[in-house]
Amino acid sequence: MSEFVCRECGKSFEKRRGFHAHLKAHSTSIGEYYVEHYAKRDLYTNELLQFKNYDQYFTEDFNHVDNYLSWLKTTSPIKAKNHLIKYTRKRFENKNVKFTPPDLYYMLAQMPNIDYYRKMWRSYSDFSKDLGVDSWFTENLPKNFWEQNSKDMQIFVDTREQKPLNFDNSMKNKLDFGDYTAAGEYYSKTFVDRKAQDDFRQTFGKDIERFRREMDRCVKFNSYMFIVVESSIGKIEEDNKVSKFKSNLGYLWHNVRSLMIDYPENIQFVFAYSRAGAKKIIPKILYHGQDLWHVDVQYHLEKKVHGMAERKTAVSK
Ligand SMILES: [Zn+2]
Question: Is the model's pTM score more than 0.85?
Answer without folding.
Answer: yes
